[in-house]
Fold this protein.
Amino acid sequence: MGFWREGWLIDLSPTAIALLFVLLELQAGRKEPQTVSPERKDEYHLSRDTWTRATNELKGHGLLTVGHTSQDGGEYVYNRMRNTYWIDLDRLNAPAEPADEDSEEHDG
C-alpha cells in the first residue's frame, strides 16, 4: 500500500490518518463513493471537529473527494443531502507531497 511506501505516514496528521483508515474500510473495494450514516460515524468515535479537520486535510492532499447525494428518509421523513466520500487510491499510491496550505490542518 502506498500509504507506507510513499511517505503518507509522515506527511499526514494523526487525525487525517485516522479518517483515511475509516474511509478505506468503508470504501473496501466498492466502485462508487459511499455515505456514512450518523450511527456508523459514532462507531468510529471521531468528533465532528476531527472529522472536519481530517476531511479538509485529505482533500488538500488530493486523497479525498467529497460529493453529495440525496438520502430518501422514507414516507414520513424529509429527504436530506448526505456527503459521499471517495479515497483516490491512485493518489494514495503516488508520492506524498505537501498539501495546499489553505486546506491543510495538522494537529498542533
About this structure: The first helix runs from residue 2 to 5. The helical segments are 2-5, 8-11, 14-27, 38-44, 48-60, 89-92. Residues 2-92 form a domain with the Arc Repressor Mutant, subunit A fold (CATH 1.10.10).
